[in-house]
Design goal:
The chain is mainly β and 140 residues long. It has one helix spanning 81-84; strands spanning 8-19, 25-26, 30-31, 35-47, 53-61, 70-71, 77-78, 86-87, 94-99, 105-113, 119-130. The chain has a single domain (5-130), classed as Jelly Rolls (Sandwich). Strands 2, 3, 5, 6, 8 and 10 form a six-stranded antiparallel β-sheet that branches. A five-stranded antiparallel β-sheet has the order 1-11-4-9-7.
């Protein structure tokens, strides 16, 4: 069956933002209860700075406030944080990072370095393989 619509849920992680300094963009905490898979999507617009780099970090925890959060071990990632990162010449690109760990909560952070001009970024989470279908539309 070609139906993906009823098998996923979408969550906002980082709302579209223009970042013009080195402030870390800390995403919303994602609760994957009721879903067996999780993929993060990072969507980029124009990146104006000529030498900026953006590092991606994914953290995990069993606590809803992310107390005691740890960086996700590479064995629990599909793709790498390095591949999800980007730089000054990544205009209008997309990145993805999958989570296959066992913790209930995760949080994505994007941290700029050497950034002094506008960089347009946003991120979302795609929750898949629900224990109950169909998923809500519009997403909750």
């Amino acid at each position: 069956m070609r139906d993906l619509h009823n098998k996923i849920d979408l969550k906002r992680v980082i709302s579209p933002v223009s970042v013009a300094d080195n402030t870390a963009q800390v995403g919303q905490i994602i609760d994957r209860q009721g879903f067996k898979s999780l993929e993060y999507a990072i969507l980029l617009g124009s990146i104006a700075d000529a030498d900026a780099t953006f590092t991606v970090l994914l953290e995990e925890s069993d606590d809803s406030s992310m107390t005691g959060a740890n960086a996700v071990d590479d064995r629990d990632l599909l793709g790498t944080e390095a591949l999800a990162g980007f730089q000054y010449d990544s205009d209008n690109a997309c990145r993805k990072l999958g989570y296959i760990g066992n913790k209930r909560y995760t949080r994505l952070t994007i941290t700029p370095a050497n950034n002094s001009s506008a960089a347009l970024i946003c991120a979302g989470a795609i929750l898949g393989n629900p224990v109950s279908m169909p998923t809500a539309n519009p997403p909750a």
